[in-house]
Write a structure and sequence with these properties.
This protein is mostly helical. The protein contains ten helices and no strands.
Amino acid sequence: MEKESAKLLLREYITTNSLINHSHMVAIAMQAYAQKQEKDEKSIHDWWLCGLLHDIDWEAYPDQHPNYAVEYIFPKVEVTDEIKHAILAHAPEQTGIIAESEMDCYLFACDELSGFIHAVSLLRPTGYEGMKVKSVTKKLKTPNFAANISRDDVYKGVELIGTNLADHILFLIDVFQKAKEKNLIR
C-alpha cells in the first residue's frame, strides 16, 4: 500500500485531528527506527505503514480495537501479515497476542511514549524544540498527567526493544522535533 493510499484510508476511519496526529507520530517513529537499523526500503515503508495504521479502528470501534482492523479493514487492502501481527501485539490485553518480532516490539515501544511526548510538548511554548529527557521522565512520574497513557506499557516497551528509557525518549524527541520542523506532525 502506497503512502498516499494509506493516508486516505486512515482518514476514512479517523476524523479527530489528535488521533490522526498520533498515527503520523507513531509512523514517523517507526520509520526512524527502521532507518536507524538500516532496514531495506520495503521494510522501512512497512514499519511506517504499521505505525500509521495501528489505531485505524480506535475511533469507530474502540471496544473491538485492534481486532476490527485486522478482521475487516486490512483484508481489503495491502497489509502484510507481519504488520497485522504487530498491530495485534500492540494491544495484548484485547487480543491475547504478545510482541515477538522486532516490528511488534518497536510498535509497542513507540505507541504510548509518542503520545506522552506529544502531551509534554503541548505544555511547552517551544513544543518539541529544546525538550529535555529529564522533563519527560519527570512528567512520567506524575500519575495525573496524561493519565490515560499506561506507564507500565512505556516501561515494558523500553524493555522490549532492549534500550534504556532515556535513550528511547531522546531518540523520539529528536525524531519529532525534525518532523515538526517539516510540518509532518502538530
